Amino acid sequence: MADAAAPRIAAKRDQGVPSVDGGAPSIGLVLGGGGARGLAHILMLEAFDELGIKPKIIAGTSIGAIYGAAYAAGLSAREIRSHTEDMLTKRVGLVRDLFAARVQGAGRFWDLVSARASFLAPATLLDLVLPAGVPQSFEDLAIPLNVVASDFYALEATVFSSGPLRPAVGASMALPVIFEPVLINGRSLIDGGLTNPLPFDLVASEADVVVAIDVSGTTVPSASRPRPTAIEALMASPFLFERSIVREKLKAHQPDIYIDAGTGHYQALEFLKVREILAAAEPAKAQLRAKLERVLASSAVQRPR
């Protein structure tokens, strides 16, 4: 798809979409939702840093909103990777304690889910996963950011681009059962992946080139257990919806650069496999870098002199 991006750049400029850096194409970066599979976003951000380019605008859903917020705040991919690896390898005990504190004395699982809204409040986990330096409001970000959440009662996507940042990101990552819904302006909001897991439509008119990173993945059966347990089916179902939504969106419209992160065989909650997931995403990072280089080279050739 990247090889066809140059004509699209020209068409968008004819429509008045602004470029940056004296004619270099502006880039809209889209980071999708997919649980632990989205750790791969870190490597995609590394590709941007290694090429010395920054997106003009970012849109993110769920874990994509988390890393989108960190990158939009001006943090480098190296800083984000260091924080993530430190959190998931050295502070995992603290994460376990947070979950344990919420479920202590809950008894049987069904009693738990019927009596409680969730295991954990999103704001509690955000204090751990967001690196220091991420501001409190959208207006203080270095790069404009769109965050997608889902309105539980209105049955539609809700997009945040201004105001308090952390509640919006918390709502975007509020996977049902695991996290309690986030209340914002009277609306009960949950995981944005349930309505728009790969929101490239939000930046299509804002940049010359739209880069979409898909981490929706698929659930892989165990060799020893071909059928999922009831809990596994419950936890994986939202990601089945996400994958279906992404496929339907891609049938109707294609971003200029689409990258499947290649981490789909990991389970959505396997965050402790952070180093394995990052290693699995290396080929996708190389693919993204090559496509970005071709787009930039093509734009340079076609740029008026």
What's a concise summary of this model?
With 305 residues, the chain is α/β, with parallel strands linked by helices. The chain is built from eleven helices and eight strands.
Account of the 3D structure:
- The chain is α/β, with parallel strands linked by helices and 305 residues long.
- It is built from 11 helices and 8 strands.
- Helix 9 links the parallel strand 7 and strand 8.
- Helix 2 runs antiparallel to helix 4 and helix 2 packs parallel to helix 11.
- The C terminus is likely disordered.
Please outline the helices and strands.
Layout: H1 5-14, E1 27-31, H2 41-51, E2 57-61, H3 63-72, H4 77-90, H5 92-103, H6 109-115, H7 122-129, E3 145-151, E4 156-160, H8 165-172, E5 182-184, E6 187-191, E7 209-214, H9 230-252, E8 257-260, H10 274-280, H11 282-302
Helix pairs in contact: 2-4, 2-11, 3-8
Low-confidence regions: 17-21, 100-118, 301-305
The N- and C-terminal alpha carbons lie at a distance of 26 Å
Kindly state the percentage of residues in helix: 40-55%
Structural class: alpha/beta
Query: What is the alpha-carbon Rg in Å?
Result: 19 Å
Total count of helical runs of at least 4 residues: 11
Taking all residues together, what is the mean pLDDT? 82
Key traits:
alpha/beta, 8-stranded mixed β-sheet, disordered C terminus, 11 helices, 43% helix, single chain, 305 residues
